[in-house]
Specification:
Blueprint lengths: L9 H18 L6 H23 L4 H28 L4 H24 L2
Length: 118
């Protein structure tokens, strides 16, 4: 991953996660199995930061909660596709697992935020 030190600014942390997903996907060998996984992973992984940025500029508490819900979903989806990528391309498993851990941590953070908004 690009930045080994944990970043506590969520906008920066989610941006770094998206960048790390892009850089990871650039290294994945292309074949009929990995190509759709790459597409899904890039979409989900970069959506985490994009939707967090949207939530940060929400127009209301309801809008904020909705957008944080999307961030939760995208981080969970990123974790899923990283798991699939580790199976599809075993040579990338260690790096996928590291990114999967970050996706898990982000998901836990956004679950906590979401649950506090009830």
């Amino acid at each position: 991953m690009g930045n080994e030190k944990k970043v506590y600014d969520l906008e920066e942390r989610t941006a770094i996660f998206g960048e790390d997903i892009i850089n990871f996907c650039k290294k994945v060998p292309r074949n009929t199995i990995t190509l759709p996984l790459i597409t899904q992973l890039v979409k989900a992984g970069t959506s985490v930061g994009a939707n967090y940025s949207e939530a940060d500029n929400a127009e209301s508490k309801k809008d904020f909660k909705h957008k944080i819900g999307i961030v939760k979903k995208e981080s969970r989806e990123s974790k899923f596709f990283l798991r699939m990528m580790a199976v599809a391309e075993p040579t990338m498993k260690n790096e996928a697992d590291s990114l999967k851990q970050e996706a898990k941590e982000l998901n836990l953070i956004f679950n906590s935020i979401f649950n506090k908004l009830k």
